[in-house]
């Protein structure tokens, strides 16, 4: 199970989980914590729905129920999704195989019939025997045609099923690389995109560059306005960043309140310009609290920019961007720093 939360975010989830665990009789072991961690993170919708339904009926979460929740909603979730796709593909392939085999047998029989009728025609004299052979031959042809038509229908249905399974698989793959809260790519998706880019980048192409973005004083926002509003801020910031990128540029939530932009084919000057655009777009926006007319003060971000050096690996590139981000933080925040 991959958890993209920052240290501060995970510490906050721990603070919220402890009283939740204390309210119920299940022992305070790692499985109990995992259930409440997933529940409070908001990423596991099915788990949250069942826990809410159970607690609404005032049913205590004992050890057996906690283990059941963990098994069904955490440990087995990814495995079940994979199994459903795999089983569907296997069933479809088996069905096509059976249909092809049956039709092959009929076509083989038709071929044998043609050969036999040919020999009979050669050996017989003109007359009723030839007419009977021709009639039998035509009947065999009709049977083979019907068999081929049935095969075509089965293949068409199997093809449609394959396309649907492929759509489900593609959707599952996309969902696995999306951040559930903000809708941008998650850390896993960023890592995969970066790895593929470095593997396939044409020789001599500039970049890639990365821009690390961290919300300033985000803990104070959560403390003052609550985590629900904090989530609203994260979503708004993600959309603001997306509005500044185009083409192959990729926006990802790197963890907690930190985002990253991957800029293929972009040198340091272009990356810095985009970073400044992101900074001014976010600092110039205002967010209204839901259910009230209160306008929250300016939300600002600090940014670190790094362009890839020749043959530099992904980890080194991101680390240099992180060092530049740290300089922005210690230098007063709401600014852009470029890695050396």
Describe this structure in words.
By secondary structure, the chain is α+β, with helices and mostly antiparallel strands. It has three domains: 7-75, no CATH class; 79-176; 187-338, Alpha-Beta Plaits. 65% of the residues lie in helices and 10% in strands. The protein has eleven helices and seven strands. The protein has helices at residues 7-22, 30-41, 45-56, 63-75, 77-123, 128-176, 187-200, 218-225, 227-242, 268-283, 314-330, and strands at residues 209-215, 250-255, 258-263, 287-288, 295-296, 301-307, 336-338. Strands 2-3-1-6-7 form a five-stranded mixed beta sheet, with helices on both faces. β6 (301-307), α11 and β7 (336-338) form a beta-alpha-beta unit. The protein is flat, with a radius of gyration of 31 Å. The model has no long low-confidence stretch (mean pLDDT 81).
């Amino acid at each position: 199970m991959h958890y993209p939360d920052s240290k501060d975010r995970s510490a906050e989830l721990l603070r919220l989980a402890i009283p939740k665990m204390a309210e119920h009789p299940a022992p305070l072991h790692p499985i109990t914590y995992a259930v409440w961690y997933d529940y409070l993170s908001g990423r596991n919708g099915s788990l949250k729905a069942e826990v809410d339904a159970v607690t609404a009926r005032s049913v205590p979460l004992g050890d057996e129920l906690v283990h059941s929740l963990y098994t069904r909603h955490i440990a087995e979730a990814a495995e079940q999704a994979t199994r459903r796709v795999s089983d569907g593909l296997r069933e479809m392939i088996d069905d096509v195989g059976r249909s092809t085999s049956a039709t092959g047998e009929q076509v083989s029989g038709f071929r044998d019939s043609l050969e036999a009728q040919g020999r009979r025609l050669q050996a017989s004299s003109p007359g009723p025997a030839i007419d009977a052979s021709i009639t039998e031959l035509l009947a065999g042809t009709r049977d083979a045609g019907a068999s081929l038509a049935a095969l075509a229908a089965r293949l068409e249905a199997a093809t449609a099923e394959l396309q649907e399974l492929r759509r489900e698989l593609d959707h599952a793959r996309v969902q696995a690389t999306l951040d559930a809260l903000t809708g941008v790519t998650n850390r896993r998706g960023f890592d995969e995109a970066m790895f593929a880019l470095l593997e396939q980048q044409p020789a001599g192409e500039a970049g890639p560059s990365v821009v690390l973005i961290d919300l300033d004083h985000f803990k104070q926002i959560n403390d003052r306005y609550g985590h629900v509003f904090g989530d609203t801020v994260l979503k708004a910031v993600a959309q603001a960043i997306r509005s500044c990128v185009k083409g192959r540029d990729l926006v990802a939530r790197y963890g907690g309140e930190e985002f990253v932009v991957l800029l293929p084919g972009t040198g340091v000057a272009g990356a810095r310009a985009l970073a400044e655009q992101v900074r001014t777009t976010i600092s110039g926006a205002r967010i209204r609290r839901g259910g009230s007319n209160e306008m929250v003060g300016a939300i600002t971000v600090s940014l670190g920019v790094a362009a890839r050096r020749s043959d530099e690996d992904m980890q080194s590139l991101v680390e240099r961007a992180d060092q530049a981000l740290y300089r922005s933080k210690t230098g007063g925040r709401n600014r852009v720093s470029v890695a050396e």
